[in-house]
Design brief:
Layout lengths: L2 E5 L7 H4 L8 E2 L2 E2 H11 L4 E6 L3 H14 L3 E3 L6 E3 L8 E6 L6 H7 L9 E5 L2 E3 L3 H11 L3 E6 L7 E5 L2 E6 L9 E2 L3 E3 L17 H8 L3 E5 L4 E3 L3 H12 L7 E2 L2 E2 L1
Parallel strand pairs: 1-4, 1-8, 4-7, 10-15
Antiparallel strand pairs: 2-3, 5-6, 8-14, 9-16, 10-13, 10-14, 11-12, 17-18
Length: 260
Amino acid sequence: MQVVLLAGGLGSRLAEETVRIPKPMVEVGGRPIMLHVMDIYRHWGFREFVVAAGYKSPLIKQFFKNLHLMNHDFTVDLTTGDIDVASRAPLDFKVSIVDTGELTMTGGRILRLKKWLRNEPFMATYSDGVGNIDIKALVEFHRSHGKLATVTAVQPPARFGSLELDGDNVVEFAEKVQKHETWINGGFFVFEPGVLDYIDGDEEPLERAPLTKIARDGQLMAFKHHGFWHPMDTVRDRDHLNDLHDSGDAPWRRFDGRPA
């Protein structure tokens, strides 16, 4: 099953980084966050990716073009230009990078990939959110219900403390404790080809009319993920993910207590 990586947005809330590079290339632990997302799928045996690029897409193309060499030691003959690559464990990904337009919305990007997707079920996610998602269980859940689409439902990280009031009296104070069961779209979708029929064109965000219509037609199911999930929307998010990585125990790299 192919995996679509949505990687074309402007990333304006992370402008400190995205003024020079596309958001999926912002590094966590010295590697672009996009590679961390790919590692999650690779852990479960999915290695074929289609990257829906857009903003600063040449930088993404250049990165993957050079990644084979960057992941190996090599000797170059400067007279002939011949390169002798030393044997090391390869990154066993197959990656297609498709420029889907700088201003195209997420739904439009997926629609533009239609000829790349072989008219088969496929997965899709954002290139800037990580979690210890059980991709195998996600796919099995999707196949079990027979609907057009599955979204991974996650519980957002608590960002603010909460106050419980009785009039003007604070009866309970909780610092960043998630008290209520709230679910949001965490990406990590599984789609049947029929999902593309719900997307009209470039201007359509996947998260608005297409998924709304699919849900109203009773064709959208939620795979509840109770483990770790975190987006990288802001500089604060980037720093938090780097701190987790540098601690030596990045939660998105652990599945059932085992490192990926």
